Amino acid sequence: MLSIGFVVAVVAYRRVDAQSRRLRAALGLGTHPNPVFEVTGLRERTERLERELSDQRSDHDLLSELVDGGIVELDGQLRVVAANAAAHAFLGRNPGALIGRDAIEAFLDAQVESIAATALEQGAAAGEVRLRGADGPTLIVRARRLVAGGVWLVLTDVSELRRLQQIRAEFIDNLSHELRTPLTTVSLLAETLMREAESVGTTLPSKMRDRIAKIEVETGHLVQMVSEIMDLSRIESGGTLGIVDDVDLGQLARSSTDRLRLFAERQGVNMQVHVPPGLPLIRGDEARLGQVFVNLLHNAVKFSPNGGDVTVAIEASEREVIASIRDHGVGIPAVAQPRIFERFYKVDRARVRGEAGGTGLGLAIARHVVEQHGGRIWVESTEGVGSTFSFALPLTDEVP
Length: 400
What we know:
Layout: H1 4-26, H2 35-66, E1 70-74, E2 80-83, H3 85-90, H4 103-107, H5 110-122, E3 124-130, E4 138-145, E5 151-157, H6 159-200, H7 206-236, E6 244-247, H8 249-259, H9 261-266, E7 270-274, E8 282-285, H10 286-302, E9 309-316, E10 320-327, H11 362-372, E11 376-382, E12 386-394
Parallel strand pairs: 7-9
Antiparallel strand pairs: 1-2, 1-5, 3-4, 4-5, 6-8, 9-10, 10-12, 11-12
Helix pairs in contact: 6-7, 7-11, 8-10, 10-11
């Protein structure tokens, strides 16, 4: 008769043997019980894994060196584990000099360390930094947290792009100033000629009267274009907002509509404003937001048929105030809608009633102003039915 101890020993052995078989199977060693075979197979498996990891690391290093941008790998303590040649060049360091340094030592910039720390905590972060003062490179730093811990930093040098943008802004600003003075003079002369032509009555040939009127109109278009180019240049340069105060968007919609009411009447267009009571105030630059309303209303009237309606509606949600300008004009083709807020983009001059097609800058200015206030702007349109331009501004106590 078997003893209880013997039975327990057999059961324990079978359990250990079963676990051993599962382990050998997981390691790819089969079920051979020979310990020499198992050790040899385990060593071969380990060596194969090490070779694969070494090959992957070599491929990783080769790829990082082929990339133009800088690549830096940080561990969980934000110390540099790896960095390619481009990263060393951006930071003015000799090859290999970054390894082992923490982020603040490597970049000498607290903002980069903050971006890396944010990515380590939240998963991703990005920012633009200028290293080593005014003469250093301007880099866009994008950070992403690694699955195994640590952070990837990707550095893109945008120094030349920012320099060209500055040159462009200065050129446009100088050119606009140079054009404004002579254009203002020509505009005054054209206006004077028109008044004199009206005073002499029928003694002036009708063709000459029409030509003087044409000069006045076209000069006005040039003055408007120069003014809008200067406005857009100032906005795109990233300048701060003007006088920031609590703005009643409903009242601003009414006053902007009143400014264009005479123009609308001449075009045979009716204008209406709907504002609910108790509309919350938003923080912003009232003059620039008024410019947004004027630009959108001017477009709506310009594209509306004689006898058409243009409706301005304001509504509020929990987080933002939304303004909508709806017309019943020619509408915008679906293919053109993604580009409608680009500078100088025009859908089709033939779609505009009258001689003036505008400068193509009004919607671009509106987009920049709204985005500068932390808002968003969009269009919904159907050809032959009309368009609705809307923009939303956040309800916040913080100045953008």
